Amino acid sequence: MIWQGAFIDASKHWSARGAGFQGPQGDNVLTLPNGPSFARLAAESTSWPDRSQKPAGEAFRGYRLDPQGRPTFLYDLGAAPCRVEDFFEPVPSKETPSFRRRLTVTATGAEPPRDLWFRAAVADTIEPATNRGWFAVDGEWTLKLEADAAPVIRRSAGKVELLLPVPLQGNKTKIVQEIVW
To answer: Where are the domains of the chain?
Structure first.
């Protein structure tokens, strides 16, 4: 989830047993796709994996902070021998606040996977927007992808997905995802 405004009131977790979900206090909440962001697909039409458990080899490797104290999350992909650096940052603007996610994927195996995909969005509708490289998602928010490959819009399991093939040229690639809502 991403949202605008206040963070959370964690007092619910400071009393009793701290059980339950504590939602954001801000507004304009956007829920992002559940499940893994990356998967290996035998073909473009292969269904996105619905994993409720962590696959073998997938591991959180911690994080590092930039000079402003913002974290870059580090994790390994299980089925694809790759390491991911995942950095999120708000993009301040009076007109259209947005959120930018920078992903760096580095192959760690002898041969980089050729069938790795990134799932940027899942919605009822996803259409190219009038701005080049942008996509309108459910008519409520927009998304832009900057990468070395062209994104693919497809229908799957009654929804529309925006997928991006992840070509690992020289064992590394970068993806920039910007969300305006």
So the answer is: 1-31, 33-180
pLDDT digit string, tens, across residues 115-149 = 999 999 999 999 999 888 899 999 989 999 999 99
User: Collapsing DSSP states into helix, strand and coil, what is residue 12?
Assistant: helix
As a whole number of angstroms, the distance between CA 10 and CA 75 comes to 26
Closest CA to 30 of 118, 131, 143, 133: 143
Q: Write the pLDDT tens digit of every residue in 148-165.
A: 999 999 999 899 999 999
Regarding pTM above 0.90, the answer is no
C-alpha to C-alpha distance for 43 and 48, rounded to whole angstroms:
11
Alpha carbon distance 176, 161 (integer Å): 17
Print burial letters for 19-50: b (CB count within 10 Å at least 16), e (below 16).
eeeeebeeeeeeeeeeebbbbbbeeeeeebee
Q: For residues 97 and 172, is the Cβ–Cβ distance under 8 A? A: no
